Amino acid sequence: MKTFLKEPLLHFLLLGAALFYFYALVNDNQANDNEISISAAKIVQLKYSFEKTRQRQPSEEELAALVNNYLKEQVAYQKGVEMGLLAGDGIIQKRIQQKVEFIVEDSVSRLEPDDAELSGFLKAHPDDYRSEQFFSFVQLYFDPSKHRNVTAVLTKTLAQITALDETEHTAVKLMPLSDNIFLDYQYTDVSYAFVARYFGSKFADSLVKLSMNTWQQKIQSGYGVHLVQLTQRTGGEIQSLDKVREQVKQDWLNEQRKLSLAKFYQQLFAEYNINVS
Fold first, then answer.
1. CB 109 within 8 A of CB 145
2. Which residues are CB-neighbours of 75 under 8 A, at least 6 positions away?
3. Which residues form the PpiC domain (predicted)?
4. Residue 185 in contact with residue 171, Cβ under 8 Å?
5. Are 164 and 108 in contact (CB under 8 A)?
6. Which SS3 state, helix, strand or coil, does residue 68 take?
7. How far is CA 1 from the centre of its chain?
8. In the prediction, which pLDDT does 106 show?
9. Do the beta carbons of residue 148 and residue 36 sit within 8 Å?
10. Which of 5, 114, 204, 212 has its CB 3.0 to 4.6 Å from that of 195, i.e. a possible disulfide?
């Protein structure tokens, strides 16, 4: 059954059925240009929308008004089409595009990936499913706007640190070498999210790649540049499929929606002569 649900032919049939339902529900399959009709399905939809908004069923008079307003909308729309008012209307064109794309993407929701597909997707995107990383580090901040050559200042400061005994690598000794800011000298076992929130994602990404227990210079943050020594890094392991199954499935479905939409437009472009001038 799962294999059947993945067949391209089924995807085409589902899309065709969805489009048929959409036109039947929204346009009620008008028999000709002079006939405006409303189906029982549309009336049910109008009642449901009223109940969802008002938290009660519509009265007979209210339902009659809903139907009448819908018919007004339809005859006005039909007259607008006849008068050519829709031609070149970007708002209406965008709305129709959104509706069509929704139908195409929604058809993918019926797919059910098996474990092999999910495992393959997880393997292809391992960084999206790692456990959260935690870091311990010390840092010294430098404001580039206060230094004509901040790189030279960083190099000089690093040389001063190296000349010190490791027992002297304390906030009291090293903080005076840097510029003042509200940041702490030492951070212990803080999460990636914490670092990204306080220093910026670029700084957090640097901690993921830094070598351990060595001072690294010109690490950028949202404030400026830093000298950083990473002392501990934990977590970051790729989680098993059992732990992240729902997330992987949702991401897999999202990718299938994008692929289906791309294929849909590829087919549409093949049906029309596209001229760019």
1. no
2. 36
3. 113-246
4. yes
5. no
6. helix
7. 31
8. 85
9. no
10. 204
What CA–CA distance (Å, rounded) separates 74 from 25? 13
Strand order across the 215-220 sheet: 186-191, 134-142, 225-234, 215-220
CA distance 267 to 277: 22
Cβ 192 vs Cβ 206: under 8 Å = no
19 vs 202, which has greater pLDDT? Answer: 202
What angle, 0 to 180 degrees and rounded to 10, lies between the N-to-C axes of helices 8-27 and 90-106?
Answer: 130
Question: Residue for token digits 């950083």?
Answer: 228
In angstroms, the CA 269 to CA 267 distance is 5
The answer to whether the beta carbons of residues 224 and 203 sit under 8 Å apart is no
Structure tokens at 98: 């959104």
Round the CA-based radius of gyration of the chain to a whole number and report it.
31
Q: What is the pTM of this model?
A: 0.55
pLDDT, position 7: 53
